[in-house]
Inverse folding.
């Protein structure tokens, strides 16, 4: 008899979580102005708001925490991290930051100016926010297959080369600071980018003199999909694939709270010394000295270890298999989700799930609220609220997909939790015809409104 799959780790410590009543949850939601970001963690039973900084560190990472070097300049922990980043990515210059959006802030301060255009696959919220804050424009060049949830294209994060070249032809080189490839592409459903597509984007960009930058928060998961889905890659190690992926870029930004397997941290890595020096000045202004950049030495040491663990196949297979477990259960239950299942989350199609809720009443946010009321599960809207308003017209932007993201923290929940999530969502799905009203915005910020927006029932 073939042995069943078992996780390549065992649990050494647990944290209690507490269920609540529906009546309690409805009161908490009202007090939170129906914004799930405003809920206290103690009010959440299973937290799928994000996979960013919410995972469990390994015993070896905790050991590194105890031996970190907290020197202000030139710490041993920085050297440890720099060597690990260069080993995995090939980039020689490193600037630590306190998290991924800080890396974007530093690098974009050096490279992006008013009137610029930044093409790429679907930009995530903070990325687009940093671009638009500088009065520049983020242009989505994702392939059309990404917006059909039933299409089984294995690399829905790919950039459409015709869309990309159209951007290159319609704008001057001086106004395109770089092409940004997000691996995996969160906004399109945690979907990977193929190595073939990365090479093609690099070749096309070279023809127009445009550098390539990677948004690399989930680069190891992207490498896993290349190994398991792309022809000719199955015999290569994850680390070999990562090294080749990054060889086609000038640099990268990283939110280490994802594939770095730590609770805080980020970095910029580059092979362009001129850009490095320019960005280093902004690191000192915004983050700290260039050899710590907002990170404690202990956290840099834990990150160096985490990057090594995250680029091993057994860990990635365990992590992504659990996400697939949830996705496949929902598919069997008839719940409409983005297919194939992505790397870090399952994305539920709220337009198909709640066809009676108007777009202007935010179906994905409505679904997130209903799931929380049903079972104390906190997800996040990847839809119209997150898409924000057009910075010029101030009209709502309605994305092609209106999604509820259920992000699975790394090495945190058991398969029993996964079954609980699937059952809870099925319960909501069974009463979907009763859900006909959504929500209206009563207050919002000028940019990145989804974090702090306040809502009321429509």
């Amino acid at each position: 008899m073939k042995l069943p799959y078992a996780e390549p780790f065992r649990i050494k410590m647990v944290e209690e979580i507490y269920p609540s009543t529906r009546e309690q949850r409805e009161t908490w939601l009202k007090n939170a102005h129906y914004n799930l970001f405003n809920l206290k963690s103690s009010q959440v039973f299973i937290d799928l708001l994000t996979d960013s900084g919410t995972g469990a560190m390994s015993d070896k990472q905790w050991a590194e925490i105890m031996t970190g070097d907290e020197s202000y300049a030139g710490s041993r922990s920085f050297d440890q991290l720099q060597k690990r980043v260069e080993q995995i990515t090939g980039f020689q210059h490193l600037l630590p930051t306190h998290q991924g959006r800080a890396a974007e802030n530093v690098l974009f301060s050096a490279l992006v100016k008013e009137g610029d255009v930044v093409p790429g696959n679907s930009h995530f919220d903070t990325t687009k926010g940093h671009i638009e804050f500088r009065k520049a424009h983020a242009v989505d060049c994702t392939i059309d297959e990404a917006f059909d949830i039933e299409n089984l294209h294995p690399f829905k994060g790919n950039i459409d080369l015709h869309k990309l070249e159209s951007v290159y032809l319609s704008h001057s080189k001086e106004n395109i600071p770089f092409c940004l490839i997000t691996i995996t592409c969160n906004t399109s459903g945690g979907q990977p980018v193929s190595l073939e597509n990365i090479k093609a984007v690099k070749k096309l960009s070279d023809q127009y003199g445009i550098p390539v930058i990677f948004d690399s928060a989930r680069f190891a998961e992207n490498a896993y999909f290349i190994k398991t889905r792309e022809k000719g890659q199955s015999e290569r190690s994850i680390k070999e694939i990562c090294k080749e992926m990054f060889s086609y870029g000038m640099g990268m930004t990283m939110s280490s709270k994802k594939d770095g397997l730590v609770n805080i941290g980020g970095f910029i890595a580059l092979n362009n010394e001129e850009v490095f020096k320019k960005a280093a000045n902004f690191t000192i202004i915004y983050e700290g000295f260039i050899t710590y950049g907002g990170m404690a030495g202990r956290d840099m040491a834990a990150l160096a270890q985490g990057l090594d663990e995250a680029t091993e196949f057994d860990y990635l297979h365990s992590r992504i298999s659990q996400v697939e477990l949830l996705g496949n259960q929902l598919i069997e239950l008839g719940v409409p989700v983005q297919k194939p299942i992505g790397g870090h989350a399952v994305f539920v199609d709220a337009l198909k799930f709640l066809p009676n809720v108007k777009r202007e009443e935010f179906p994905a946010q409505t679904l997130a609220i209903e799931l929380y009321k049903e079972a104390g599960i906190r997800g996040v809207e990847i839809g119209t609220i997150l898409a924000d308003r057009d910075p010029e017209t101030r009209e709502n932007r309605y994305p092609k997909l209106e999604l509820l993201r259920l992000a699975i923290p790394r090495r945190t929940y058991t398969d029993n939790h996964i079954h609980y999530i699937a059952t809870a969502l099925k319960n909501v799905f069974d009463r979907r015809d009763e859900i006909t009203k959504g929500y209206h915005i009563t207050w919002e910020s000028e940019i990145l409104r989804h974090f702090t927006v306040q809502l009321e029932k429509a």
About this structure: The chain is about 40% helix and 10% strand. The longest strand covers residues 93-97. Residues 22-51+313-457 form a domain with the Aspartate Aminotransferase, domain 1 fold (CATH 3.90.1150.10).
